[in-house]
Amino acid sequence: MKKAIQNLSKDASRTSPRFGQRGHRPYRWGIIIFLALGCGYYLGHVASTSMTLLAQTPSSGNISSSRQVVAYIYNGIPITREELGEFLIARGGYQKLELLVNKRIIEIEAARRNFAVTPEEVQAALNENLRTLGISKEDFINKVLPHYGKTLYEWTEDVIKPRLLLTKMCRDRIKVSEEDLRRAFENKYGERRQAKIILWRPGELKVAQKQWDEARRSDEDFDRIARMQADPNLAAACGLVAPIGRFAWVDSEGKSDAVEKMLFSLKEGEISQLFQTPAGIMCIKCVKIIPPDSNVKLEQVREELEKDIFDKKLNAEIPKFFGELKEQAKPQLLLKGPPSPEEFSEGTKRLIEAAGLQVPSPPLPMNSNLPQDKK
Known about the structure:
By secondary structure, this protein is α+β, with helices and mostly antiparallel strands. The chain contains 14 helices and 6 strands.
């Protein structure tokens, strides 16, 4: 370390004439101390982490069962599960700690409530995943799971099982009312509107006003402006969205009925005024009015609608419920990995402040134009 600091000092004095001047020696030593403290903080943090992860290497005398041994070398020297665990933790396993903690919180709370999942339930949930995605198990393993960085085992253990347990624990918290059913039926089988949408960012009012004037001139102009909008999906579809029924806002992220009110106030072919939505500034064009499906009655589709409503409410309730469980569990994650750049910077700053030092500002370029003091 001493040699490295000396080299840094020599390099510094070579690269800038200012460092060679006597008046700037405090600055040079400030930089050297800063670098030394920073290196000391980082190395100390990593060394502390390494000691935490690797210090407890088991000896063969601590092995209580052959099931703890995962390998042998030299005809009898064992490598244990504990050694393997410490090896994996030191190489990034700490990143999985929060996942393990969350999983255990769910399992412990489920056990307290006498809930469990069976292999048949897990398989049924996996089959439902495949059915929803419309793909085979092979494609799910080879194409979908790599996107999430998971194997099939991890998917069933870390996704399906915890969700099944949370579903069982949340079930009593979810109620499907007749009003829910009425709204869902009206949304799916009542009158709907086919629409095209142009969406601008919240701060683009002047741009929106100019382009909205252009879009009202003709169908071709509307489509041209729609293809220019920032949202790539809307732009690719020329602003066309799936038919919108009443009460669609109930399940929307912002819970705003602004789009529904505006769309259902338009006649076929009309373009709305500009209006604000949670997503930004919008105008909407009513392309087609789709009449209600008079052949379908509520009782015919009640079971289907109840399941859809329950699933939507469940998806919204699970994060809230798990948040409550986590609050009660009060997890404390003690195992840490190497410091992030932000943690490194903050830790170095604390060390410098504790030493009573002040890091000077970097030197100005030699050719900088400084304001001259008036004499």
